[in-house]
Specification:
The protein has 31 helices and 28 strands. By secondary structure, it is of the alpha/beta class. It has a six-stranded mixed beta sheet with strand order 3-4-2-1-5-6, sandwiched between helices.
Length: 882
Amino acid sequence: MKTKETPLMRQYNQIKDKYKDTILLFRLGDFYETFQDDAVKTAKACGITLTKRNNGAAGDMPLAGFPHHQLDTYLPKLVKAGYRVAVCEQLEDPKLAKGIVKRGVTEVVTPGVALYDKLLEAKSNTYVATIFYKTEKSGSKLFGISLADVSTGEFFCTEVSQKSIKELLEGIAPAELIVAKPQKKELSDLIDSLSSEPAITSLEDWIFEYDFAQDVLLQHFETQSLKGFGVETMPLAVIAAGATLNYVKETQQSGISHIKTLSLYNTSEFMLLDYSTRKNLEITFSQHDPKNGGTLISILDKTCTPMGGRLLKKWISSPLNSINPIQKRLDAVEALYTHNDKREFLRLHLNSISDLERLVTKVATGRANPRDLINIKNSLEKIPILKEILNEVDSIALASVAAQMEELADICKEIDEALVEEPTVNLGTGNVFRHGYNQELDSYTEAKFQGKNWISEYQENERNSTGISSLKIGFNNVFGYYIDVTRVHSNKVPEHYQRKQTLTNSERYMTAELKDIEEKILNAEDKISLLETALFAELRTKLAAFTEAIQKNAQLIASVDCLQGYAQVSIENNYIKPEIHEGTELDIVNGRHPVVEKMLPLGETYTANSTTMNSEDELIHIITGPNMSGKSSYLRQTALIVLMGQIGCFVPAESAKYGLVDRIFTRVGAQDNISAGESTFLVEMQEAANIMNNATERSLILLDEVGRGTATFDGISIAWSIAEYINNRLNAKTLFATHYHELNDLAERYTKIVNYSVEVIEAGHNVIFSHNVVKGSTDHSFGIFVAKMAGMPYDVISRAEEILEILEKGDGSESSGAKAKPDMSKVKSKKQRNETDQLAIFEFRDDEIRERLAEIKIENITPIQALQLLADLHIEAKKDKK
């Protein structure tokens, strides 16, 4: 027997059928309710109680809901849990509805399409991206890609090759990725390999037809062709852009008029950074401590505005690939660096500018409140001051930015004349518009706030005009306001008084004037709400007409903010202006790691090192030295100095000159991908293969411990072959850190390979790391010493030293450039010692400690190193005492 459906549930099911892949928040009076599976998901994601509703013969129905005013609290929780959420509102006043209240979905919020503040990070973009491909005759895929940030109005598209699509997506890190249903399975490997883990939305294939996509774009931008956007010859980019725009329109019922243009994302203008490089250089995220900085952006971000913070993240993720734009940024930074007082004044005013990009989006989508408009006005009023400062710092680039800023004085004046300085967020309070802006609103506002005074004044006036000193104004719910006159004074009642009620001792009257006062007082709040809503909508519409100009101003302010931030951090951290040229040489004098130097314990200083590389006799540096000696920091600092220069920032060094670098590649550390069935060594080889297949003579390569994930002879063979390939085929500048001392032999065979090592000072049984990188090789890794630093038990360290001494007494024969396999037969098994055994009287180690102290060369160690040495000896002495 079919269960009878109530009218309300019939309405719900009809709406739900249209939004099957979303959680439907169904407005019921003062609550948003969810039913069935949606309720189960909502209760879990939001941490609210799951209840049940009797549904007749169908049994109990799961139910979960929350008050409508808590939408901003619970909706972000659902979206962050990965759900798409449809907000279904009541579209008419329930008091006026005939039958069931009309309802409809007003917006769909997704991980990539959201305008709620709690779903947005101030200094990060939230992108929804679309990818669509076709297979070419060669068998490789060509991709169209588009991305949009609905909160800022940015909208880009481009076409890229199959080998570049992953790097591009990694750089964008979209929150949501749209694909065509027929292509989803084919794209699964690409999607699974992304580190950002975007939410995946698959749409019907007809949405990805060229004609449909083109029509969507032409209709939205109201143009006859796409030539003005520079994408007319990129059909896959057009398809991706059309699919993105269509998706955004479907979700945002309030409209997307703030998306004013479609821009071509020209990948040739930027250096592509693969995930391995981003991860190993810790550019925008840290592998070890993501909550407490430790990233390049955490050091460089001295921006004062949210727009500047978002732009910095783009700049740092996409270094420039051309000298002219790099030089323009560097020259602008130099001007701000030099004019210290102007920069400080600039920062002062930038700090008071709100997020214009997102505020104007709120205006265009009808979400802005009165305070948002005041923040826009206050921010725009800073533009004349910014222009004046920028024109005074003697920079062509900054003067050009200033010239492009539009002051928009008229709209600022309009907002200033309309709104009070500190309006309430909500309309209908009577504390939004200035007195005098609208006479009708003024009368109702006065009625709300001056009603009692009006009644008192009217009462006093009537007493004076009638001569009835006991006349009173009263109120009840039946008659409203009335004039009460005792019978003694009945003969003094004026003719225009209308009798309303007769009592034993008095008569109650009404006048037209009192009726008008009553109407204004009793209807004031409703009238204020209606008038303020209408007037504010009108003002918001006027401001929306300036959306494009405000967006442009926001982008210009953001660029200025980034440049002054570069200047600020350069002064604070003693950075210098680099020289970037067309050659291939690299010469860094006393370079420093920008992050490590800021995170050292108080009192310690970073050891600077120089790096010189060229294509003739310093192409590849083979760098040896023990763990913890600073090899990895040295490699990374060189790459970060190059990257910082190409984002237009000064760099941590005494001087830096280098040829433009097209790519930075890194193969650092050990990491597996167990979920994909990939071992540590396989991941290592995949990263190395990516470098060998894509590096050019303008690339900078960092290799750290290549081949360590397999057997020694295998590892040495692979590392040796890679070094030869780079030398003979790629001709790319390479820093190759290794514990395979056998690779030092390469320097004797190839003129462009040079050996470097990290200087180590031996003091008896102790070792001091100087962190100085010097020419020459080393054949000692000091691994046992590092194990001792890590707290390894003394017996383990002692036994290891014993075994090492035996092995190093081998015959020293070599085979194929590598040491022969060690003869382990010479290492005798050690008898297990009973813990109750007593130490022999001659096992005291006082003489050994004295010997170590005597061997220390005091003149060769720093105070910090001496303190570390003393601490080590203290620990060993305590162990002996036990």
